Structure formats: C-alpha cells, structure tokens
C-alpha cells in the first residue's frame, strides 16, 4: 500500500531546536495515520529537514508512505 501525506510542521515552530521536534512530529503523524509502531524515516526526509539548519525548517513536508507487512517506510514524495 502506498499513500502520500502532507505533514504540517507548524507545531515545531514554538520550540527553539525545531528539527528535533519536527522528526518527532513526523513520526507521531505516521503512527496515528498508519496505525503502526514500526516506522522507518528515510534519509531524504532527514536531509530535507536539516538542509537549512536546526532553527529553520520547512512549514510542511510531502511524504510518500509505503506500508509493508509490519513496518512503514516514509520517504520524500518529490
């Protein structure tokens, strides 16, 4: 199964170190929407979030999710 989600990262902007909380927001979003605890975030998402540093993250990110038997793999949609 493959789906595309647009994950808003606006809740990370109230913190000082935004990238750390952005990864947690992505993980919680995918846990909620895929109902799986085994989530693997691809390095392309990590590079996209860290591209402009720890304090300047994108407002939202588009993610392609592939669900295999018991794990969920998330990667950039572009």
Offer a concise description of the structure.
It contains 2 helices and 4 strands; from the N terminus they run E-H-E-H-E-E.
Report on this model:
The chain is of the alpha+beta class. It has one domain: Ribosomal Protein L31e, Chain: W (Roll), CATH 3.10.440. The chain contains two helices and four strands, in the order E-H-E-H-E-E. Strands 1-3-4-2 form a four-stranded mixed sheet. The protein is globular and about 35 Å long. The two termini are 18 Å apart. The mean pLDDT is 92.
Explain the layout of strands and helices:
Elements: E1 2-8, H1 18-34, E2 39-41, H2 43-50, E3 60-67, E4 72-76
Parallel strand pairs: 2-4
Antiparallel strand pairs: 1-3, 3-4
How far from one another are the termini?
Answer: 18 Å
CATH architecture: Roll
Could you tell me the radius of gyration in angstroms? 12 Å
Oligomer status:
single chain
- How many distinct beta strands? 4
The CATH topology name reads Ribosomal Protein L31e, Chain: W
What is the domain tally?
1
The class by helix and strand makeup works out as alpha+beta
Choose one word for the global shape: globular
The major β-sheet equals: 4 strands, mixed
The succession of helices and strands, N to C, reads: EHEHEE
CATH class: Alpha Beta
Number of helices: 2
Could you list the spans in which at least 5 consecutive residues all have pLDDT below 50? Answer: none
Classify the helix fraction into a percent range.
25-40%
Fourth-level CATH superfamily? Ribosomal protein L31
Strand numbers in spatial order across the main sheet: 1-3-4-2
The proportion of residues in beta strands is 25-35%
Mean pLDDT, as a whole number?
Answer: 92
């Amino acid at each position: 199964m493959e789906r595309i989600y647009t994950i808003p990262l606006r809740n990370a902007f109230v913190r000082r170190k935004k990238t750390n909380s952005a990864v947690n927001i992505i993980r919680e979003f995918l846990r909620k929407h895929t109902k799986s605890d085994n989530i693997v975030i691809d390095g392309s998402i990590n590079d996209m979030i860290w591209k402009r540093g720890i304090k300047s993250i994108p407002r939202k990110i588009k993610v392609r999710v592939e669900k295999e038997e018991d794990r969920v793999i998330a990667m950039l949609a572009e």
